[in-house]
Design brief:
The protein has 248 residues and is of the alpha/beta class. It has one domain: Rossmann fold (3-Layer(aba) Sandwich). It is 41% helix and 17% strand. The chain has helices at 16-27, 39-49, 63-77, 101-122, 148-168, 195-203, 213-224; strands at 7-10, 31-36, 53-57, 81-86, 126-135, 173-180, 235-238. A seven-stranded parallel beta sheet has the order 3-2-1-4-5-6-7, sandwiched between helices. Strand 4, helix 4 (101-122) and strand 5 (126-135) form a beta-alpha-beta unit. The longest helix is centred in the middle third of the chain and has 22 residues, at 101-122. The N and C termini lie far apart (42 Å). The structure holds NADP nicotinamide-adenine-dinucleotide phosphate. Keywords: NADP, Oxidoreductase.
Amino acid sequence: MLLKDTLAVVTGGSSGIGLAAAERFVSEGARVVISGRDAEKLRRAAEKLGENALPVVANAASTNDMKRLYEHAADHFQCKVNVLVANAGISRQTPVRDTSLEQFSDVFDTNVGGVYVTVREALPYLARPASIILVASLAAGQGTKNFSAYCASKAAVVSLAKSFAAEFVESGIRVNSISPGVANTPIFDSLGMSEAQLLDWSNVIPMKRPAEPAEIAAAMLFLASDASRYMTGADLAVDGGMSGISPF
Ligand SMILES: NC(=O)c1ccc[n+]([C@@H]2O[C@H](COP(=O)([O-])OP(=O)(O)OC[C@H]3O[C@@H](n4cnc5c(N)ncnc54)[C@H](OP(=O)(O)O)[C@@H]3O)[C@@H](O)[C@H]2O)c1
C-alpha cells in the first residue's frame, strides 16, 4: 500500500487518465477527491471508486471553485492533501488560419490557467511533504499540425512544474510533470478525428499502440509516492518510446 493514510486530489478525475489515477491511488490506500465540470459524469466515476472518493463539481480554472473544493476536502476528511494531480485538460484542433483568439484562449485558460489556479489555491491545504504532479504531454516538445494552442499550453505546463518546483523545494513540496504520448481516452471524442487518423497516430508509436490510462496511472503512482522522493522539477515521459526513439 504505497499511499496508505494519504489524501489525493485529482482534477479531471471523472474520466480517462484522471479516473485511472484515482482508481490506482484508492487501490494503494489513498482517499481521493475527484473533480470535473459535468456533475453526472463525476457522480458515475465516484460510484465506481467507492466510499474513499469525494466528488466535487469544480472548474479547475475558477479560483472560487477551487477554493471551495479544498475547503470541502479539508472539512470532509479532516486532513491535509498529500498528493495533488493537476490533470484537467482539453484538446482542440486549432488550425492557425481559422482559430480566433477566444478559441486559443479557451485552451490556455483550462490547460495553463487551470493548472496555475489548482496549485495556487492548494498551497494552504498541502501537507509537508507533498507531491504535485502536473499532467503535460509529449505535445509539449513536438510541433503538431493544427494543434499549436494545445502544444504550446502543454509546453507551459512543463515549464510551470519546473518553476513551482524551484519555488517550493525548501518547503518539502515536490513538483514534477508527466508527459503521456497517446492514451486511449475520451479526449479524442472532442477532436473529430476519424478512426483512420487515430490509426495513423498509433502506427508512429514505437510500441505500436496507444497507452491504456492505467499505464499512465502507474507512472503517476511512482511520482505520488515516496519512491520518487529525490525527484522534483522533472518531466516523466510515458509515451511508448515516442519522444526517445527515432522513427528511422
Ligand atoms: N489522452 C491522451 O492521449 C493524452 C496525452 C497527453 C496528455 N493528456 C492529458 O491528460 C489529461 C487528461 O486527459 P484525458 O485524455 O484523460 O481526457 P478526458 O478523458 O477527456 O478527461 C479530461 C478530464 O478533465 C476534466 N476537465 C476538462 N476541463 C476541465 C475544467 N476546466 N475543470 C475541471 N475539469 C475539467 C473532464 O471533465 P469535465 O469535462 O466534466 O469537466 C475530464 O474529467 C489532460 O490534461 C490531457 O491534455 C492526454
